Amino acid sequence: MDVFEAVRGRLEVREYSGERVPDDVKLRVLEAGRQSPTGLNTQHWRFILVEDRERVKRLAEMSKTGKWVAGADFAIIVLADPKYPFYLIDTGRAVQNMQLTAWNYGVGSCIYTGYDEDGMRRFFKIPGNLEITAVLGFGYPKRRLKGKKSRKPLTEIAFSEYYGNRLRDLGTLE
Ligand SMILES: Cc1cc2nc3c(=O)[nH]c(=O)nc-3n(C[C@H](O)[C@H](O)[C@H](O)COP(=O)(O)O)c2cc1C
């Protein structure tokens, strides 16, 4: 899959078919996280693979904004050490790499960030020095994905040479 087309085409998927995702895809998704770059190569992120149905359901119960994870085939809890000022950039890069890798194998995913942190900490035995930065749910999409991303035009968010200066004409994309 072309990387640009994957970036452009991937949508967040919150409804899943129930079909099991094979281990080799799960392994590639985690490996994509591991291969991600970190500031000073600190590699402080940690990933918890949650596959057990009851545990996936508990994840959903402990969230207000990620209830949909109950239907996911598996989830990954993304942890990071907040002592590094760039820790959120590091986890963002790992998250995106994992989601794009899943997409490459036809597996949809979505992220959520609203959860009962204390509850999750106890239930998943998360050490105090690590912050829960995101949870990802994964699974084959329930239905064929259609739809267009809602994004601002490039000329509204990118500038040429200095802030506020209109982006020069770079042509158009198909
Ligand atoms: C940092 C971050 C936090 C997010 N938190 C949630 C969340 O708590 N629950 C949820 O359902 N979606 C969450 N999302 C998903 C966004 O709503 C989604 O990425 C955005 O609407 C674009 O979706 P699209 O790429 O399918 O167009 C989050 C996304 C990001 C990047």
In short:
33% of the residues lie in helices and 15% in strands.
Question: What secondary-structure arrangement, pairings included, does this model have?
Answer:
Elements: H1 3-9, H2 23-34, E1 46-50, H3 53-61, E2 74-80, H4 87-104, E3 108-112, H5 117-123, E4 131-139, H6 154-157
Antiparallel strand pairs: 1-2, 2-4, 3-4
Helix pairs in contact: 2-4
Bound molecules: flavin mononucleotide.
The site of flavin mononucleotide (FMN) has 10 residues, from strand 3.
Q: Can you list the strand order of the major beta sheet?
A: 1-2-4-3
Strand content: 5-15%
Average pLDDT figure: 97
Rg value: 18 Å
CATH class: Alpha Beta
- CATH homologous superfamily grouping: NADH Oxidase
Order of helices and strands: HHEHEHEHEH
* Unreliable stretches: none
Helicity level: 25-40%
Q: The CATH topology, please?
A: NADH Oxidase
* Anisotropy-based shape: globular
